[in-house]
Design a protein that fits this description.
Number of strands of chain A: 2
Shape of chain B: globular
Shape of chain A: globular
Oligomer: heterodimer
Radius of gyration of chain B: 30 Å
Structural class of chain A: mainly alpha
Number of helices of chain B: 14
Helix content of chain A: 55-70%
Largest interface: A-B, 53 and 77 residues
Number of strands of chain B: 17
Number of helices of chain A: 16
Largest sheet of chain B: 6 strands, mixed
Chain lengths: 357, 503
């Protein structure tokens, strides 16, 4: 019974481990759907990425002389790997996953000092580095081919795709955002695109795309679960989605033939995955509610700008990384107001202001 | 000062942050207050309050009656100590304190004679006929201090009318700390006495409005207080939402009025004084019956206590006696706490005496304490959300750990009320409050050192100036003497010359 112990003498029971587990639980439905939708290649890549993350985390901890078991069991490395896998094209070869794991864990996290110290979202560091270095592998999008259906790769074919570099004919196509980008870039009108995925298909997730980003509804459900469990607060998702949809609506109203509407921006691409799971990464997002609102709005703005005018059809990863870089600045300037003080930090003075009640 | 003159509180205001710990009050809430049998020996510390320790007025071997003055208060902020029962003084010396340090403090040891014989009392038939200052004087003489745990001498707060424009007395019946039920039971069982004491205090403060705030997990206490207050339209009993730290007086006042107490200020700055219901009852006893504060109600609870209870305990009773009366431990407690689990202190052992501010003795099991190894901060901002003061606990702790005291101070260290909400929610089990206590301690010792340094510097400068002045005076005196001598010499020479000339 040490006497140096300060109050409180009780605890909510929250832990880093349960926090990470709850995030994984929230991701589970969308992930299961993604793995089912894209079949064996996706399952192989998912496992390769997760194992890679665990391996690199263990090696890093060992080198730094930290207790490997304690830190490995906090679940952060698995979650990083999980999020990275969710953002990869399901048919990508195994080494994309393992290299991504290295980039995320070693370059994105451990060189900064390990858990809690990294400036950038590790999964997005890896994704962006892979996208820039291996544009072909990172933009080959498999058509949905659910497990055990006709035309879906069987187990052996899955191994060949992931580990053998085999790409079946007619196996891949463009994502919704990519398709729109290509066509509008060539001056085609949006109304002439008859082969766009329907809104309900995008909501359900019966479209091509990254492994875990396709099912808007399941991601939304997972996000709401995290809000309910108070793992994340509403500020970042709300301001991110709100800003994105606002811009989409304005631009769509200005020119409906060139700029897709709010529905497409909400349901396609990584909007919901990013808003609820990526931008809300605890370590790399601001801590104050106002800071989080600004951060989310910044992400939403950048996503729209990149999707619409920059060189990539999807911009969530870039947007989040850019805003990550601003997080220390946001945290410095946007602090909560201290009780009994005004915004400048001076004690409240009711007499001089004439009172406010 | 035209703000807040409304008399009725019609809506409650939301406070920032806070947490919802399991209140664990069912362990003892249904147990009526029970008088603890008089123990064999009482150890009455002379410092049971904030301020200067009391000075002994008795010596070894004296026989004292219950309520007799044992030690006089010293200075403006202090409180006297009285005999909890009749008996013989067997020692005026040192005994371990009711404090985490367990340091020995000045203590009077009293051996009860079993008669429990009161000294002649001086009750007041109508306190409302007295001068307000006289009420404060009697409260001071009765040794009454804030019984919610703060132990600030109550009379000093009753005299605030001299310096502030007061309009409302708030009674803090929130009892937001988990486990504690002593105020709950007191408000249920002694509602009339509490209300009477509250009215006397309001009269002494010169305020009309009285608001009694009680958290909604105590419906029986709310009903009892409403019943007791029904003839007094100026008293409002208000149900408070259950949220820790509702009982922080600044946050309670904000909940009731929407006004924040200015930083570094008192609630009196916005016209409000806050007292605890147990303090109100002590005021009632002191005025109506002339009895000084010699006992208090203590909740003995926690998972490791066999039969959790609410006991009325003579001050100076060893904590062990309370625990024995509650059937002892049913398992080895992981922590023994004085006060509540959120802000209480660890007790070094069970020999320490019960004191005026000791509202709870908790023996918590390892499961209740839920201790865990500290791991790195993941910046989840749970602490930022939980902080009722709008601070950034994670940044303060990081700076405190780095020894960067100036940065911690700038981040609002002195605005921290040490409520523990941040540590309670931290998933990394970072002992944030411990870092803040450390920083506060460092800051205080730095200020002491600076004060000492300044004082030394001042003394040295003083001495130098004095020495210089002395040297100057000496020099001047010497020169003066020299001049005088020269003048004398010249005069003598002139006289001689004149003499010679005349000769």
């Amino acid at each position: 019974m040490s006497l140096m112990i300060s109050s409180p003498h009780t605890h909510s029971g929250k832990s880093v481990q349960t926090t990470m587990l709850l995030v994984m639980l929230a991701l589970a439905p969308a992930t299961s759907f993604g793995l089912y939708l894209f079949g064996w290649p996706a399952i192989n890549l998912f496992l390769a990425t997760l194992l890679g993350c665990l391996l690199f985390e263990a090696i890093s901890l060992k080198i730094m002389g930290k207790p490997v078991g304690k830190y490995l069991s906090d679940g952060s490395a698995i979650l990083t790997g999980w999020l990275l896998a969710m953002s990869l094209p399901p048919s990508a070869p195994w080494w994309i996953g393992v290299l991504g794991a290295f980039l995320a864990i070693v370059i994105g996290k451990q060189v900064f000092g390990g858990i809690g110290q990294n400036l950038f979202n590790p999964a997005m560091v890896a994704r962006v580095a892979l996208l820039i270095s291996f544009p072909l592998e990172m933009t080959t999008w498999a058509h949905p081919a659910p497990l055990f259906t006709d035309g879906a790769p069987d187990f052996m074919q899955g191994l060949q795709i992931t580990f053998g570099g085999w790409v079946p004919d007619g196996y891949s196509g463009a994502t919704t955002l990519g398709h729109i980008r290509t066509e509008t870039g060539q001056g085609h009108l949006l109304s002439s695109l008859t082969d766009l995925a329907s809104g309900s298909n995008m909501a359900m997730g019966w479209v091509g795309g990254s492994m875990g980003e396709t099912s808007a509804l399941l991601l939304l459900g997972g996000g709401l679960f995290l809000l309910w469990k108070r793992i994340i607060s509403w500020h970042i998702p709300a301001s991110l989605i709100g800003t994105l949809l606002l811009l989409a609506t304005i631009m769509h109203t200005v020119n409906p033939e060139k700029f897709p509407g709010a529905d497409v921006h909400l349901l396609a691409g990584a909007t919901l995955l990013g808003a609820f799971f990526i931008a809300t990464d605890l370590v790399t997002s601001p801590v104050s509610p106002t800071g989080q609102l600004l951060f989310g709005a910044g992400c939403g703005l950048l996503v729209y700008v990149i999707r619409t005018w920059a060189g990539y059809p999807e911009g969530m990863a870039f947007a989040v990384l850019l805003m990550n870089a601003l997080t220390p600045l946001i945290d410095h300037y946007l602090r909560p107001r201290i009780y009994g003080r005004d915004r400048k930090g001076e004690p409240l003075n009711y007499v001089s202001t004439g009172g406010k009640s | 000062m035209g703000y807040l003159t409304t008399h009725k509180i019609t809506k409650l205001f939301r406070i920032r942050g806070g947490v919802h710990p399991d209140d664990c009050k069912t362990l003892s809430a249904s147990q009526p207050i029970e008088d603890l049998p008089m123990p064999d020996l009482l150890h009455i510390p002379l410092q049971q309050h904030i301020g200067a320790a009391a000075k002994p007025a008795v010596k070894r071997g004296d026989h004292v009656l219950k309520g007799q003055l044992l030690a006089n208060s010293q200075g403006m902020i202090s409180a006297p100590v009285h005999a909890p029962t009749s008996g013989r003084i067997v020692g005026v010396g040192h005994y371990p304190a009711h404090h985490a340090s367990g340091l020995s403090v000045h203590t009077i040891t009293l051996q009860p004679d079993g008669k429990d014989e009161w000294i002649e009392l001086d009750p007041v038939a109508d306190p409302f006929a007295l001068e307000p200052a006289e009420i404060a004087a009697r409260v001071a003489a009765a040794g009454i201090v804030g019984m919610g745990g703060a132990t600030f001498p109550s009379a000093v707060k009753l005299n605030l009318r001299n310096r502030y424009a007061l309009h409302t007395l708030v009674i803090n019946g929130a009892e937001c700390e988990p486990y504690l039920t002593c105020d709950d039971r007191l408000m249920r069982e002694e509602a009339d006495g509490v209300i009477d004491g509250v009215r006397i205090m309001a009269y002494a403060l010169g305020v009309e409005n009285i608001a009694i705030g009680i958290e909604n997990n105590k419906p029986e206490a709310q009903a009892a207080m409403r019943e007791a207050a029904k003839d007094f339209p100026n008293i409002q009993v208000i149900g408070l939402p259950m949220r820790y730290p509702m009982g922080s007086e600044k946050h309670l006042v904000q909940t009731l009025t929407g006004l924040e107490t200015p930083a570094r200020g008192l609630t009196a700055d916005i016209g409000i004084v806050v007292h605890n219901p147990a303090t109100a009852l002590a005021v009632h006893d002191a005025l109506r019956e002339g009895k000084p504060l010699v006992s208090r109600v203590v909740t003995v609870s926690g998972g490791a206590i066999s039969q959790p209870r609410n006991l009325r305990v003579p001050l100076g009773t060893k904590v062990q006696t309370l625990i024995d009366h509650c059937g002892g431990f049913n398992s080895e407690p992981a922590r023994l706490i004085s006060g509540g689990p959120m802000m209480g202190n660890v007790l070094p052992d069970t020999r320490v005496p019960t004191v005026k501010g000791g509202n709870g003795i908790l023996a918590l099991t390892a499961k209740e304490v839920s201790e865990n190894q500290e791991s790195p901060c993941i910046r989840c901002a749970s602490c930022v959300q939980a902080c009722p003061c709008g601070l950034l606990p994670l940044e303060m702790a990081a700076n405190a750990r780095a020894g960067n005291l100036d940065a911690v101070t700038k981040l609002g260290l002195m605005d921290c009320i040490a409520c523990g909400s941040c540590s309670y929610v931290c998933p990394s089990h970072i002992p944030l409050v411990q870092y803040f206590n450390y920083a506060k301690g460092e800051l205080a010792s730095r200020q002491r050192a600076k004060h000492k340094q300044d004082e030394t510097k001042r003394l040295i400068e003083h001495r130098n100036a004095r020495m210089e002045a002395q040297a100057r005076a000496k020099k001047e005196a010497m020169e003066r003497r020299k001049r005088e001598a020269a003048a004398k010499k010249a005069k003598a020479a002139a006289a001689k010359q004149a003499e010679e000339a005349s000769a």
